[in-house]
Each structure stands twice: as structure tokens, then as C-alpha cells.
Amino acid sequence: MSKNYIYIGGGILIVLLLITGYSLFRGGSSGQQTTGRGNFGTGENRDVTVTSPDGAATNPEGQGITYGSGGTTQNVFKINDGPVMGATLMQYGRPTTTVARFVMQDSGHVFDLPLDSPGSVARAVSNTTIPGLSTAAFSERGNGLILQYLDNEVVKTVHLAFPAATTTITTSGPVKLQFFPNGIRQVAVSPDGTSAAYLVPTTAGSDGYVAKADGTLGRKLFNLPLSQLLLSWPSAGTMLAQSTSAAGVPGVVFSVDAKSGSAVPLIYAPGITATADKDFSHVIYQTVNLGSRSAYTRDVKNGINTQLVFTPSPEKCAWSSGSASTMYCAASVTYVEPNFLDLWHQGTASAADTVFKFDVLTGAAQLLAAPGSKDGGEQSDIAELAVSPDDKYLLFIRKGDRSLWGVRLTQ
Which of 38-42, 92-96, 101-105, 118-122 is the least confident region? Predict the structure, then answer.
């Protein structure tokens, strides 16, 4: 079955040419996309204004302040009205408190909200103002944040280092800023949060660099002959670099050794998108032809591909923190067109998602929550997910208004 998706020999040249040409199609996407699509908006004011943060301060703008989930028994609950660019889950102290840390898209301000305590109020972690964010990636287990924005048509990338957490929810202190080189297209954070990889476009394709999480000590690691790539860092020793997907267009996924930079073509398939587990033993990927859409798990060691019982989009999935074989995905239970993902990125298609739990080893999929049902919340087209360190909570951002929601995975 999987042999139908393998392209060898001279076919890779066709893949590269088609992918490069297709970048023009994806370049016109909406600014409300998920992180990592290379669209950095067209806002006018992109100056960075640094103010002294107060870890104990409440939201200075009075917007989006919501309360902890302890007062409700519903599985799905709102955390913030948005627009939220990125979010993560952190845990502190004894007894353990789970905290949602999130950054506002319009201001760059960062807030913490405890999820275990009734009546909790969002507290400011950083009042550093960076308007019009395009991407956000948390590092150093939530104590660092990499943001991208556009300044006079130049893509800027900056790292924010927050005061180290102890046993309290937030601590006072200055936020340290460190800028990456200009013109970075993609940023990926290592699983332990201490390093970052990034792509810089060149006339011949893309150069890949690796650095500390704050962008210092950067060095060139690899280069690939593709100008439009998505980069992720799922496993400590391995990155994934993949072509931008399009229904029916040949695509390729590369594995990149995080130390040597050796890049190896892993899978060729039309309309491919992929994600890998933290051990890099399995790759979950979706392929899209003009008339069909399928998803598979690939055993990296033996190269065997197995078709899945449902068809998740890998970018709508997040891996479990505790189990290497478990991932959580957002997927619609109703029919969507095979080219739905293309239309979704263009902002012309939407579907209400449910949250599934999937076991890579057994192939079993379990429905956990349906936002807008008796589980609570509102019907949501889910854009991004994050899982708490103990797998107790899941976060997601609702596409469109970019409101932030939580899901109880265990009671």
C-alpha cells in the first residue's frame, strides 16, 4: 500500500520544482493562520517598546481576563478571549498547580492563569510590548518565548527570558530581550527547550541554523534546495523539515540529524504533512490527492506504513508528555473535502473539531471532548494544541477569534 506513495530516482527533481513554484499560491494566505506558515502580516506599527514588568500586576488593558477552571466541572472551558498567539502549560510547587501561560497577539504581553484554583485571575508575566505578532514559540519549559513580527518589511525574531519560577506562580523581575538575525522564516524549539533551530531563505533554497534558545551561539547546520519549508524539532536528536503541503502536489519530508546536520529524505507523497514522536520511532503523516485524503503511521526502524482509522492533520496534533506512543488530535467528525487543509490555510473553509486521543502502537482512537456539546465550551475550529506535563490538561486556540480554551483530560 505505501509503495504507491514512494517517489524515487529523478522524481525528486520534479518534487522540488513543483514545491518551489507552489509557494506563490501559499504566499497569499490569511494572517489568521497557524504558527509557521511564513505570513507575517502587514501591520503598520511594529516598534518594540520595553516596559518594566510586574509579576503581580493584573492585566493593564482590562481585556481577556478570565478565571481558573476550578469553579466548573465541564471538560471544556475558556481561558482567555484572545487574540492569543501562543500558549503553553507549566506546573509549579507542592501541591502541583497547573498554569496556562499565553501571549497576546496584538500586544505581545504575557500572562499566567492557574487552572486548578477557583477564582484565579490572570497575572502579567511580561508587559514588553511587541504589536502585531506573527508567530510564538515557548522555550525553556515556558520560561522563555521566541516571537516574530514584521518591522518595515523585515522579519524580526526576538527571545524573551522571564524570571525563573520557583514555588510561586509568577515572580517579579525584568524580562531580558535577545534578538536573532533578521529575515528568519521558521523557528523550532528543541524538546528540552534549551535550543532553537531556524531557517533562512537563500537563492538556492534554505539554510538551517541551530543556536541556544535565545539565539546566541548560532551556527549553520544544514541546507536544503527548497525555499518553502516547515521546520519542527520533535525528538532530541532529530528535526523534521517538510515541504509546504498542497493537495495533489508532490511533497517531501526530510529527517535532519540535530548534531551533524545530515538531511535524509524520509517520505515522498502528494500533499504531505507530518509529525514525529519524541523517540523518533514513528512518523504520523497525511497525504492528499485531488480526490482523497489518507493518514498513516510509519515505523521509522523498519519503514512499514500503516493506514490509520481516522485522518488527522498532523499540525492539529500534540504528543503526550508522558507516553511516547500517545498523541492528541483535533479532527472533524463530519466529512470535509480532500483539499480542506488548503482551503483552511486560505481562510475559506472551517469545520467544528473534536479532540481525540490516539495510540500509535495499537491504532486505537478515542474521542475525549467535543467543544460546544455537553462537554462545555463552544464549537471550535482548532488551530493549535499543547499538553500539560502530567497529561491532565490540553490547551487549544480557536481559529478566527484566537480565543484560548482548556480541556480536562482527566478528572
Answer: 38-42
Q: Are 184 and 34 in contact (CB under 8 A)?
A: no
In sequence order, the 6+-apart residues with CB closer than 8 A to the CB of 210 are: 195, 196, 197, 218, 219, 221, 258
The number of beta carbons lying within 10 Å of the beta carbon of residue 46 is 18
Q: Kindly list the distances between the CA atom of residue 314 and the CA atoms of 46, 283, 374, in Å, as whole numbers in the listed order.
A: 32, 10, 27
Long-range interactions of 311-314: CB distance < 8 A, separation 24+: 311/286, 312/284, 312/286, 312/356, 312/358, 313/273, 313/286, 313/341, 314/273, 314/274, 314/275, 314/284, 314/285, 314/286
Closest CA to 399 of 384, 386, 377: 384
Q: Contact, 91 vs 98, CB < 8 A?
A: yes
- The C-alpha atoms of residue 268 and residue 17 are separated, in whole angstroms, by 14
- Residue 249 vs residues 16, 183, 226, 298: alpha-carbon distances, Å: 10, 27, 14, 20
* pLDDT value of position 196: 98
CA-to-CA separations, 3 to 11, 304, 393, in angstroms, rounded: 14, 10, 38
Reference 66, options 77, 76, 74, 75; nearest CA is 77
E strand or H helix that includes residue 145 = strand 144-151
Percent above pLDDT 90 for the chain: 68
Q: Report pLDDT digits (tens) over 63-76.
A: 333 334 444 557 99
pLDDT at 42: 27
